[in-house]
Amino acid sequence: MVQACQHSCAAAGQFDLAQKLSAAMTINPRPVDHYVILQHFAQARRHMTIGEAHLARQYEIIAELERDGHDVRQKSCSQNS
């Protein structure tokens, strides 16, 4: 599952910046400050990086729990009561 996340995140990074700007202009055809768009893309990339780090840590925690003999299978809501 980690590999699937890494693959999709890597694929997302393959888009050219010019394509992103073009897409943004297509969605919102009014004049837009390109600097603002670049800042939004930079912020989105930072958020993706942070999210990927959180996911990686969660997988590490699950692996540690499993190594220690804990049941790491997902339980349904009715089993949590």
Q: Could you explain how this protein is built, in words?
A:
The structure is a single chain. The protein has 81 residues and is mainly alpha-helical. It has one domain (2-71). 74% of the residues lie in helices and 0% in strands. It contains 4 helices and no strands. Helix 1 (2-12) runs antiparallel to helix 3.
Percent helix, as a range, is over 70%
Terminal CA distance reads 28 Å
Q: What is the helix tally?
A: 4
Largest sheet: none
SSE ordering: HHHH
Number of E-type strands: 0
Core attributes:
disordered N terminus, 81 residues, 4 helices, mainly alpha
Q: What's the gist of this structure?
A:
The chain is 74% helix and 0% strand. It is mainly alpha-helical and 81 residues long. It has one domain (2-71).
Which helices and strands, and how do they pair?
Elements: H1 2-12, H2 17-27, H3 34-67, H4 77-80
